[in-house]
Amino acid sequence: MINSSLIVTLGCLVLLFSTLSAQNLNSLPDNSWVRISASPGDPDGREVPPGRASTWIYDPISGKMLRYGGYTPTFSNALYSFDLDSLKWTVLFPHDETYPTTRPGAGSSWSLMVDPSDQSILFCGGFGSTFYGTGDHGLWRYSSLTNTFTKISGRVPYPGLNKLIMAYDFKNRTIVSTLPMGAAEGSQGKTYVFPLDSNKWISKNTPSGQNPQESYRDGFPMVYDTAMHKILCFKSGATLMDVWAFDVTISTWTLLTTTNAPPKRQWAVAAYDPLNKVTFMTGITDDKASTGVKTDVWVFNSATLA
């Protein structure tokens, strides 16, 4: 039995949080999708839906959802907030094509992670049209208390393109990155980590066949599981979804033996529910095309491996 929690999904990211902070949403039926708001419109009145492949996260300081970046009508550096009580949008930083150096660059598919030590949001790894896109795609920290960004580090030093998926092991204060799109041959045997206390990216040898990075499949969604105290990575296997666990303390990936695994898929997304200590996963197709669209949602419990 899953206790009351709320999944919010827009674009291609799924986010999960307790409904205690969203009083107007407590009456939503369990196990159902209900549309609660449309995305903000294009300020120039164009018909293309804005913010596709933007990245979302729940900000525990403000109690609001944050949405950053996206790729329509252009690669964006805009930051919006969404109030779960009033169901209203606020522009925190409008799209700015001068690409100021005081915030992350323009792009889509950013990784956003909460740092529980101060409840700030970590930003990293957005993807743009010209390799790394316009502006800075390194590691940034955002605080809604001051509505400011602070740069922490440059980008993950993988060769090739960006579009990374990351997760933050906050027990060990370490960010873990998967293989990026277009990474050069030979990168498959490396996993990059960023211990916040050392303030630098470190390459860890993770041998071929002993990691989930043998091939690129539009990134492999990752979460930090507070029950296992490990990073979980969900990857398409031969026929089913594989679950890999990364132990930051020994820099080792382990393929978990799971039961009742969902069928393999591309463009998968995942979100961890710290209330129930389970991961929700969905998305989207077998072949990255418009055919074979999947609408199922799965729950993984690391305590039972099912």
Question: What does this molecule look like?
Answer:
- By secondary structure, this protein is mainly β.
- The protein is 0% helix and 35% strand.
- It contains no helices and 21 strands.
- The chain has strands spanning 6-10, 13-17, 55-59, 64-68, 79-83, 88-93, 111-115, 120-124, 139-143, 148-153, 166-169, 174-177, 190-195, 202-205, 222-225, 230-236, 241-247, 252-255, 269-273, 278-282, 297-300.
- A four-stranded antiparallel sheet has the order 3-4-5-6, with no helix packed on it. Strands 7-8-9-10 form a four-stranded antiparallel sheet, with no helix packed on it.
- A hairpin with a 4-residue loop joins strand 15 (222-225) and strand 16.
- Please tally the helical runs, counting DSSP H or I stretches of 4 or more residues: 0
CA-based gyration radius: 18 Å
Mean pLDDT figure: 82
Strand content: 25-35%
Large-scale geometry: globular
Helix and strand run: EEEEEEEEEEEEEEEEEEEEE
Per DSSP E runs of 2 or more residues, the count of β-strands stands at 21
Give the structural class.
mainly beta
The largest sheet is: 4 strands, antiparallel
Tell me the distance between the termini: 14 Å
The low-pLDDT segments are 17-23
In helices, the fraction of residues equals under 10%
Largest sheet strand order: 3-4-5-6
Present the secondary structure layout.
Layout: E1 6-10, E2 13-17, E3 55-59, E4 64-68, E5 79-83, E6 88-93, E7 111-115, E8 120-124, E9 139-143, E10 148-153, E11 166-169, E12 174-177, E13 190-195, E14 202-205, E15 222-225, E16 230-236, E17 241-247, E18 252-255, E19 269-273, E20 278-282, E21 297-300
Antiparallel strand pairs: 1-2, 3-4, 4-5, 5-6, 7-8, 8-9, 9-10, 11-12, 12-13, 13-14, 15-16, 16-17, 17-18, 19-20, 20-21
